[in-house]
Amino acid sequence: MSGARKTFSHLAGAQRIPTTYEIATSRLLYYFDRGGFALELPTSEWYRRYQVGSPLGAAHPAGTTPGWEAFEDPRATTYASYVRQQRDREAFVARVLDAASVARQDPTLAAAWVETLERTLSPLRFVYHGLQMAAAYVGQMAPSGRITVAALFQTGDELRRIHGIAFRMVQLRATGGPAFGDSGRERWQDDPSWQPLRRTIETLLVTYDWGAALVALNVCVRPLCDELFLIGLATLAERNGDYTDAQLLRSFAEDSSWQREWTERLLRVACGDAPGVGETSGAAQARDAIAAWIAEWRPQAAEALTAAAANLGPDGAALAARAYQAVAPFVEPFTREGCDAV
Fold it and tell me: In this structure, are residues 322 and 232 in contact, taking their beta carbons and an 8 Å threshold?
């Protein structure tokens, strides 16, 4: 007589005790492997069209083994580990901001630099709020719990940035005046330098195919935003003696490395280029789709960031070019040229 199946029998194939990450993230979206929701709902057609029907979805159709479960977050992030990590980073940010208040460093900042912060920090709240909503949509539509979990932790990263920027803006009012940052919404909605990026992000928010949304967000738009506004702006802050904003922005940039790592791991699984996955019937279609999405989104993202870089002053164009070069090693393996070279 065979023994009763255990709670985590779907992980028994590894012939070892499953990790906390595997237990917490495996096969959470039961409906996908079963071919859809148990009941026909008003949203069912939406999921059939934009999740199952995505060219990226063809890489691992419902019911295949190992399917999307072959994707593993390289950091093996769970709620507990995410909270521990971000607790330490938030503690660092709090110390940086407290030190600025105690040392009263901001009044020594040059007026021209405070104006640069006025032009950039306040509109950045809207940039990262748009990216946060896009990440939440990717998590909602993803065909695997592991992808959903990674994308939703990414939304937490974006909220951390929004909160930190808002706090810093209030702090800077002691130097830039009580109205510092009040023009942020007007700049975001009307300033010509921000309109290409605004248009790009708003288009991203109505990109419903989950694969297209993932590639547009995590390959084309967000990496450039991070390189320009977190790394580039931090570099300018250091040059202007603003070590508070430099440390704050670099702390936010630490999240970017993980976001790129899990995205790269996922795309390699989709393309059949990951250990234990191999070529699947939909891998070629997935590679073609990823390359096409990059070809569509990368130029407009670069154009948008170049326009927004004007707010960083005379060095803006050079910083935008440097940002594009910095993300190229991450992006190019998935372009048409990169795929053909493999």
Answer: yes
